[in-house]
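Example 9 (inverse folding). The structure is encoded as follows.
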């Protein structure tokens, strides 16, 4: 019930060399659980922004009244990575020992914000739902931790895809839940949902 909402939320997007650097933003209105209405869209060319500083932007919504006020900072990725299984981080015993020492009890208060990190190996999916008429799907997997999101590549025409990717997330809150969702890529249309699992960090 507001024409001037304040969200004050922070989202981290991780750009790698194979990603386009255009940030698409949509503003939606909800009447109830079933009815939604698009209130406007805008775009930010991330490559045009100065790096290593916080940029304050007022973005007018295209073809609709109103604007969005945002703070956007472009900085090198730290603590987040995607790698192949064959070059998996943490595989080196020396590196594991360094990490064990970094997060041991006597060092736990050295940096309160450095809670730790989570490494997830996404190997494969089995017996997925067929999403197209040919009895196949084009699945990819999205991992979300807090407001961090990373995803695998798409394996086309396969109900038993193998991704064999390793994802590393910095942990900001030990009470967060890792959500792993499998989607079917559907060209220019929104992807189809194929399944989801949620894993609380406290259960790991």
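The amino acid assigned to each position is listed next.
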């Amino acid at each position: 019930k507001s024409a001037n909402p304040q969200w004050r939320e922070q989202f981290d997007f991780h750009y790698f060399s194979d990603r386009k650097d255009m940030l698409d933003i949509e503003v939606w209105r909800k009447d109830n659980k079933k009815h939604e209405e698009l209130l406007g869209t805008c775009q930010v060319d991330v490559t045009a922004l100065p790096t290593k500083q916080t940029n304050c932007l007022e973005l007018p919504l295209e073809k609709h009244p109103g604007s969005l006020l945002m703070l956007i900072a472009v900085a090198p990725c730290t603590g987040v990575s995607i790698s192949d299984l064959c070059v998996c981080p943490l595989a080196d015993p020396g590196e594991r020992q360094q990490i064990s020492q970094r997060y041991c009890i006597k060092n736990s208060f050295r940096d309160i914000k450095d809670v730790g990190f989570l490494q997830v190996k996404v190997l494969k999916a089995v017996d997925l739902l067929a999403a197209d008429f040919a009895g196949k799907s084009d699945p990819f997997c999205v991992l979300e931790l807090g407001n961090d999101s990373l995803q695998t590549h798409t394996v086309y025409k396969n109900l038993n895809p193998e991704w064999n990717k390793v994802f590393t997330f910095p942990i900001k809150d030990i009470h967060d839940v890792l959500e792993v969702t499998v989607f079917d890529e559907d060209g220019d249309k929104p992807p189809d949902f194929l399944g989801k699992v949620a894993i609380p960090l406290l259960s790991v």
